[in-house]
Structure formats: structure tokens, C-alpha cells
Amino acid sequence: MIDQSHSTRHFIIKGNEQMINHVRSINELGCLYWRKSHKNLELGDTVYLFITKTRNCGIRYRLTVTDIDCERKDSSCWNVPFIPDKHCYKFTLDTEYKGIALSLNALNKIGISTYVMFKQLNPEQVNFIDNIIDMAK
Q: Which of 3, 89, 91, 122 has a 20 to 30 Å separation from 68 between CA atoms?
């Protein structure tokens, strides 16, 4: 259950399609599993997935953190040998974005460096991204 008492935070996270097929994971499983590393995500946080190593690099999904400690169940979506993990985040699809306005160049213009693998966004960056995603619906 998502805690409604905390204010939603927004993050951009970079997904390398050479390692895991994130698109297939969302289409087949309805979610993504993500290694915790040093991230401190909370239930209800919003995550924008920037997909790399594809023809159209850019933000493709707006996701919601729906589990903060679960086992990976996406072995069928790995392009490299699967690495089991019993303590992952689970992100559930909110919106898929199929446009090109959230490309590397557009994000750089609003101060988002896509060299960073994980970053919390400021309100102006969130408004920019959400406006584009919501207008495309």
C-alpha cells in the first residue's frame, strides 16, 4: 500500500537495453524490477525511465514505485546472464510515452544530464516532462 502522507518525489533513471529488455518487461510482466544499490526510493515515488542504446534514446515511461523490497521476476527479459536479487524495487507502469520530445538534447536543455544513472528531479524539470507526457495521451 502506498503511503499518501509523504510527498511524491520524482527521479530519472537510465535503463540500458543491452543488459535488460525493459520494454519487454513492461509489456510482458506489467512492471520493471530494479536493483536497489544506493537508491532510497519510497512507495509512491515517480520514476521516469530514460532508455539508452536504442534508435530513439529518451524518456519512454513514467512509472510508480509499488514495492521497495521484492524478488526479481524478470529473468526472461535479460539479454545477459540473469543475476538473481531478492531485494529489488518494483516499478509499475503509469504512462508510456512514444514521442521524441524527451530526447537527450531536450533533457540537457532543462539541466538533466543523461550521463547520470539516477537523479532526483526539481519541480521545473518534473513539470516539463509531465506536460509533454500528458499532452501526448
A: 122
Which helix H or strand E contains 91, and what residues bound it? strand 88-96
Label residues 46-57 b or e (16+ Cβ within 10 Å = b).
Answer: bbbbbbeeeeeb
- Which residue, 70, 77, 103, 96, is CA-closest to 19? 77
Residue 37 Ramachandran class (φ > 0 left, ψ -120 to 50 alpha, else beta): left
Q: Are strands 10-16 and 118-120 parallel, antiparallel or unpaired?
A: antiparallel
The H or E element spanning position 111 is: none
Going by the DSSP 8-state scheme, the letter that residue 125 receives in this structure is H
Question: Quick one: average pLDDT of 124-129?
Answer: 97
The DSSP output letter for 22 is H
Whether pLDDT at 101 is above 80: yes
Give the dihedral sign, CA 85/86/87/91.
positive
Per residue in 74-98, pLDDT (tens digit) is 999 999 999 999 999 999 999 999 9
